[in-house]
Specification:
Layout: H1 11-33, H2 38-46, H3 54-70, H4 76-84, H5 87-99, H6 105-117, H7 126-138, H8 145-157, H9 161-175, H10 181-186, H11 191-197, H12 202-209
Length: about 210
């Protein structure tokens, strides 16, 4: 039997793409409906498979972090630890790592931010964290101020500012005039205390003093 070559411009190919996009949109609506309850999001994460779209996978990770944080700082570390001990978390981080090469700048930023919020920088998440940082670093010159601010905050939150923030500082310096107030506040964490103690990193000096 002779199989016809794939023609991306054919009506059948276009229909397949449209159907895939519709499924992705439907799944993301379902995720957002459950976004206020991180426990329900874990149930959705368990149902993900290797065919899941990057948008859906990243949205679940990002909303999980927001859901855990939304319940307040008291007990947050315990909630995050409980979340990270589930099969759903292992499944989710496996899929994110598999999809890193397909993520856009906002998805990369949101995933890195989520890992920082959930304190997910242990041995279990090391490979994923390294993949995300490498991808962010590769596309850093195309990051918008919001991406730079949030990713820099995440690096500082996880104690990685000495290793990575000098490179982020260069990117921030180039785009500093485009930063909004919220970006300057977010990037990176602890700026006021570090400035007072005279221990501001390269990126923090850019944010605080414009140098």
């Amino acid at each position: 039997m002779i199989v016809a070559p794939w023609d991306a411009s054919s009506p059948d190919a276009l229909l397949q793409v449209l159907r895939g996009a519709e499924v992705t949109r439907h799944q993301n609506k379902l995720i957002l409906r459950n976004a206020f309850d991180w426990r329900q999001l874990l149930e959705l994460a368990e149902k993900l498979n290797e065919e899941s779209h990057a948008l859906n996978v990243c949205t679940i990770l990002h909303r999980l972090a927001k859901g855990v944080a939304r319940e307040g700082p008291r007990g947050m570390s315990d909630r995050a630890r409980s979340l990270r001990s589930t099969f759903a978390w292992q499944r989710l981080t496996f899929l994110v790592e598999k999809l890193v090469a397909d993520l856009n700048n906002m998805e990369l930023t949101n995933c890195l931010w989520a890992l920082a919020v959930l304190e997910a920088n242990g041995p279990q998440e090391e490979a994923l964290l390294n993949s995300l940082i490498a991808a962010c670093s590769q596309y850093l010159s195309s990051f918008e101020p919001r991406n730079l601010a949030l990713s820099a905050w995440a690096l500082a939150k996880m104690g990685l500012e000495k290793q990575w923030c000098p490179r982020w500082a260069e990117a921030v310096a180039v785009k500093l005039q485009s930063f909004e107030t919220r970006d300057m506040t977010n990037a990176p964490g602890r700026p006021t205390r570090l400035a007072r103690d005279g221990r501001a990193s390269g990126l923090e000096r850019v944010i605080l003093y414009g140098i």
